[in-house]
UniProtKB/TrEMBL annotation:
Keywords per UniProt: Isomerase, tRNA processing
Gene Ontology BP terms: pseudouridine synthesis; tRNA processing
Pfam families tied to this protein: TruD
Family: Belongs to the pseudouridine synthase TruD family.
Biased composition (Basic and acidic residues): 98-120
One term of GO molecular function: RNA binding
Cellular component GO terms, alphabetical: nucleus
Spans annotated as Disordered: 78-138, 248-268, 711-731
Keyword Metal-binding: no
Taxonomy, superkingdom: Eukaryota
InterPro entries, per database record: PsdUridine_synth_cat_dom_sf, PsdUridine_synth_TruD, PsdUridine_synth_TruD_CS, PsdUridine_synth_TruD_insert, TruD_catalytic
Organism: Meristemomyces frigidus
Protein name: TRUD domain-containing protein
Domain TRUD span(s) in chain numbering: 405-679
Length: 787
């Protein structure tokens, strides 16, 4: 893919680009390509409609483990109530560190949360006129740095020695040389508490290739050194961990320069009194990715975006509400960002003793508006007759959907948005063709290059981001775009492409030669881990979809000998809890949802005996199918043979389901189990509504409810508005009156409003597919500027 570029100044050779063909494939063709082929009730008439014509037509609210549907009910925060402090029991476990209370931030009143001062959203003030604000004794940078050098040349005094157990943990991971440097650094921190974190040295570890060891290293650093030191894995030096002094968390949060001595501000409440060290809050977002919103919040708090925890990602094109947790951040720091928010809001703050993990939810509630509803036989009928005919068709479909369910397929979004899907990249990785995987990620269409896009022609509505992506990849391959320019130009949501190109472009500072242009694994390792694992998971999903369709074709809803069920689910034993695979991917819940808790208590399956198959002990909703991996059981019937046949085929990549271990851990998948069938957790609510135009909003969002309440109360909130999106995908504000409740002109169209609940990791698009018999066509978001 990448050829060496000259260091002597001559014109760099052009890298051979893989050009992505532009194929106008139908939604049905796309579904067939990834194994989505079967209907549970194929004889039931379907109907046609448009999904997500407006992004407010697709509302998703998480269902908490308690069964409560999560809603954003207020913007910002209410004044926190103190809870009686409880003594924290001592623990001998390394995983539960004994940490001091967080240094305080000034008490913040409710009104100030929305009107956060600009200075609190900027970096710390430099030493100068206001330098005394940071410390009573001003020390010059030159003196500090000379002291740092001396501090790191002496051994740590006995009175700052860490426990023998913790020191041994540090030694085991880092070795004597690095441990000695860390002890000296820790000593310097305690000796000079007023010194800024950036004035201390940074200690680098030796290469640690094992991801699990690096995870332990981060934990040990935090525990052993009482959170005075912090660690991070370097992106440009894979496997190397950098350990530096953690900035005190004072008035400016993560910047921590305003209260270096760590004295609690007057009236400040400690973590234990608040209720725990994890701040949980509700994130409401419109037409944004989960990580897009959280990355902005993280950038303002000066913390890594990976610090935020959530139970599952949500669709970009929609209005979604979900829980998020973050360790040791005060609610005021995040609530104050509402005034800067574009396309998202936060509220519902509470402190808890635990964070969130993938699968920590029962599922999701969907409120969907399906526009342009048409049913067979409506031609020539007037509106009342069409309305009755539509109600009859929807009623029959909803009844079948509730009772018979649908095949629990992985939806199209699992396989990426470009013609060379993520499952193809995953297959390349499993085949060991890492260069091919990178080529697949960096494909683009010539039709998307700026010179080929006619803004006044048929392709004038192509997303600007896609055009920029194609152009950046083209220019980089031709050697006309350096890493700095690439970072500035490529849209943030194409982080995988950006990370790969920047890594492969790294040069030796002395010679100017490329030093890692053929390090394919290193390039893939720069991709955020969740995204990186998505590629292999997509291949697993392809195989699962194919197997599910074959299983239904052979046996239908009949339970047969050799089918798999979860051990303990209907046995006379305790039910096995929900699981995640080694990548944190939700696998299954006994009640029918895929949910996850801990990797080390892996779900086990067993085959159904002939006697069980002939009894009524199990139904089709108990049957699971494996995602291929080295630690799963395959069905002991014809479906088990199908796994071998398909994976060995050209489409399956010539792989062996019984040989799934790889030398690279991220490509070595243990596998998992997923329920073959799914159905709504509760009933299906529906209504057929006449409407006039696309601008008419038929279902209110949580923000609509808040704004309506504020209007009724005669209140205004400058930080709250309704977002829209322009042709470039940029968010802009518009008043609610311009959107909701707009008068309809000639209500001659029909829309179906659906409300139902699905378990975690179940796809609403696949539920709609069964309901409509393929008639629910996805509206292309890039062709629409209406919210």
């Amino acid at each position: 893919m990448a050829t060496k570029r000259s260091a002597e100044g001559e014109e760099p050779p052009v890298k051979k680009a893989r050009i992505e063909p532009v194929l106008q494939t139908s939604q049905e063709d796309q579904e067939c390509a990834v194994g989505i082929t079967v209907y549970v009730s194929p004889d039931l008439p379907g109907f046609k409609c448009t999904v997500k014509q407006r992004y407010t037509d697709f509302l998703v609210n998480e269902i908490l483990p308690t069964g409560e549907v999560l809603h954003l009910t207020e913007i910002g925060e209410k004044k926190s109530k103190r809870v009686k402090a409880q003594p924290v029991p001592e623990s001998k476990s390394v995983a539960t560190p004994k940490e001091p209370e967080l240094e305080a931030e000034p008490k913040i009143e409710v009104e100030s949360e929305v009107e956060t001062k600009a200075e609190d959203l900027q970096g710390p003030e430099p030493n100068g006129a206001n330098g005394a604000h940071n410390s009573g004794n001003i020390t010059t940078t030159e003196n500090v740095r000379s002291e740092v050098k001396n501090d790191n040349e002496v051994a740590a005094p006995d009175d700052v020695a860490i426990s023998a157990e913790n020191k041994q943990s540090v030694l085991t991971i880092f070795g004597e040389n690095v441990t000695s440097k860390l002890m000296n650094l820790y000593s310097a921190v305690l000796k000079h508490p007023q010194r800024k974190a950036r004035d201390h040295n940074t200690v680098k570890s030796e290469m640690i290739p094992d991801k699990s060891v690096r995870t332990d290293a981060h934990k040990v650093v935090r525990v052993a050194f009482n959170s005075k030191l912090q660690s991070e894995t370097l992106q440009d030096e894979p496997g190397i961990i950098a350990i530096k002094v953690a900035p005190p968390k004072g008035a400016s949060g993560a910047r921590g320069e305003r209260n270096p001595n760590g004295n609690n501000a007057k009236g400040q409440v400690g973590w234990n009194e608040l209720g725990g060290q994890y701040l949980h809050f509700t994130l409401y977002k419109e037409n944004k990715d989960t990580m897009e919103a959280l990355s902005f919040i993280a950038s303002q708090l000066k913390i890594p975006a990976k610090n935020f925890e959530f139970a599952g990602t949500k669709d970009r094109r929609g209005v979604t509400v979900q829980k998020v947790a973050v360790f040791r951040v005060r609610s005021g720091q995040i609530a104050g960002l509402n005034r800067m928010a574009r396309g998202w809001r936060v509220g519902g703050f509470e402190y808890k003793k635990h964070g969130l993990a993938l699968g920590d939810l029962l599922g999701n509630e969907f409120a969907l508006t399906l526009r342009d509803l048409t049913v067979p036989g409506e031609e020539g009928l007037d509106l009342p007759a069409r309305l009755e005919l539509a109600k009859s068709a929807v009623s029959a479909a909803a009844e079948s959907f509730e009772t018979k369910g649908y095949l629990n397929y992985y939806g199209l979004q699992r396989f990426g948005s470009f013609s060379t899907g993520t499952h193809i990249t995953g297959l390349k990785i499993l085949q060991g063709d890492l260069q091919g995987a990178i080529d697949n990620i960096l494909t683009y269409s010539r039709d998307l290059l700026p010179e080929n896009v006619d803004r006044n022609g048929e392709n004038n509505k192509i997303p600007t981001d896609d055009i920029i992506r194609a152009d950046c990849i083209r220019l980089w391959r031709e050697g006309r775009l350096n890493p700095a320019e690439l970072r500035d130009r490529i849209p943030r949501r194409f982080s995988a492409e950006s990370s790969i190109m920047q890594y492969l472009s790294k040069k030796d500072r002395k010679t100017g030669r490329l030093i890692q242009e053929a390090d394919w694994q290193g390039a893939l390792m720069t991709i955020q881990r969740g995204l990186r694992l998505m590629y292999v998971h997509a291949y697993q999903s392809l195989v699962w979809n194919m197997a599910a369709g074959k299983r239904w074709e052979l046996y239908g809803d009949k339970v047969v000998e050799g089918d798999l069920v979860i051990v303990g689910e209907k046995d006379d034993r305790p039910v096995v809890q929900d699981e995640v695979d080694e990548a944190g991917e939700p696998i299954i819940r006994p009640s029918g949802e895929d949910a996850g808790i801990a990797e080390d208590s892996f779900t086990r399956a067993r085959p159904v005996s002939k006697q069980e198959a002939e009894s009524d002990k199990h139904t089709i909703f108990d049957i699971v199918l494996p995602q291929p991996g080295f630690d799963v059981l395959y069905p002991s019937n014809a479906i088990g043979d199908f796994y071998k046949e398909f994976m060995a085929s050209e489409q399956g990549g010539g792989l062996d389901p019984y040989s799934m271990r790889r030398s690279w851990k991220d490509a070595s998948m243990s596998g998992g189990y997923r329920k073959m069938m799914a159905r709504p957790l509760q009933g299906v609510g529906w209504e057929v509504i006449p409407y006039g135009g696309m601008e008419e909003q038929l279902v209110g969002t949580d923000m609509d409810v808040i704004q309506k309440r504020e209007r009724e109360q005669g209140q205004t909130n400058g930080g709250v508005g309704r977002e829209g999106v322009d042709g470039n995908g940029d968010v802009h504000m518009e008043s609610l009156s311009e959107v909701a409740g707009a008068p309809a002109v000639g209500k001659d169209k029909l829309a179906l409003v659906l409300r139902f609940q699905l378990g975690s990791s179940q796809y609403a698009t696949m539920a709609l597919r069964e309901l409509t018999k393929g008639g629910a066509l996805a509206y292309k978001p890039e062709f629409n500027t209406v919210r």
